[in-house]
Specification:
Blueprint (H helix, E strand, L loop, with lengths): L4 E7 L4 E4 L5 E14 L5 E11 H10 L5 E14 L5 E14 L3 H6 L4 H6 L2 E4 L2 E3 L29
Parallel strand pairs: 4-6
Antiparallel strand pairs: 1-3, 1-5, 2-3, 3-4, 5-6, 6-7, 7-8
Length: 161
């Protein structure tokens, strides 16, 4: 069975990092994810997804983002229960984040800019405490398959079908 989640959205609050009795960091936050359709009155609606992240990744996320930052997260859905002060059973469904990506530059995040160019320029992926930059500037990349308006010379023998 597959339990996999990938979300892109904006943080609704700063990451709340706490530590377990054994010293393990655990962060909790909520992501606002826009729905792809509009409501009856023509407005976009959003879902607010509760997330939890563990260990060094929790500390890294808290250091790199703040309320309003655009992030992508990958993880799994988890449910848990507890009894509240009134003795009622409370069910919680949340995403346990295994990796995240910063989808806008720090400057764009600080300025609150939602420019499409600033949002797509870099994405820094952090997973299990490792840090890498998988994408570069869109303007720097060239399309190796562009034919510059010339016809493509492919014989029928080159096609696999």
């Amino acid at each position: 069975m597959i339990n996999s989640v990938a979300l892109t959205g904006r943080l609704t609050r700063n990451v709340d990092v706490r530590y377990t009795q054994s010293g393990t960091a655990v962060g909790s936050f909520t992501i606002a994810v826009d729905r792809q359709f509009r409501s009856a009155n023509g407005e976009h609606e959003a879902d607010f997804i509760n997330c939890v992240i563990w260990r060094k990744s929790a500390e890294n996320l808290a250091n790199f983002v703040k309320k309003g930052s655009l992030v992508g997260v990958e993880g799994r859905i988890q449910t848990r229960t507890y009894d509240n002060a009134q003795g009622q059973k409370v069910f919680i469904t949340e995403v346990v984040v295994e990796s995240f990506a910063l989808l806008e530059s720090r400057q764009a995040s600080q300025n609150g800019t939602e420019s499409q160019h600033a949002t797509n320029r870099t994405a820094t992926v952090i997973s299990d405490g490792s840090h890498k930059k998988p994408k570069t500037s869109l303007s720097d990349s060239t399309d190796q398959f562009a034919n510059n308006g010339k016809p493509i010379d492919i014989s029928d023998d080159d096609l696999p079908f």
